[in-house]
Amino acid sequence: MTLRTKFLLFVVIIHAVLIALAAQLRTTNPVLFVASEVLLLVSIYLTVQLYQGFVRPFQLIAAGTTAIQAKDFSMKFVPVGQQEMDQLINVYNQMIDALRHERVSQHEKAFCLSALSRLPRRALCCWILTAALRK
Fold it and tell me: Keyword Electron transport on this protein (predicted)?
């Protein structure tokens, strides 16, 4: 059972109990019944806001995981305004920048090595000596 399913199950049970309690108040105390219905609506609104606050980070993490699996190192996230998530987003963006830099560096080295392997041996020796003399 996922965390999302557990949360939704908990919310449904809590609100079902609140609805049952409010239904009992309907005949005995109409004013308290209306107040409980307002409280129930406020509770549902806050629950939706809380749910969106929990789900959004998981969606960002899932999108980042998918991008890394696809070897797409160009995807960066924008801070969302929650301190904990912004820290995670900063670390993710720094990691992606480091991976992209490392990947470019490896491609440059591979290109250089392939170019050197195509040179004749005499030209390669001259190139190495010239580079050593420049230092």
Answer: no
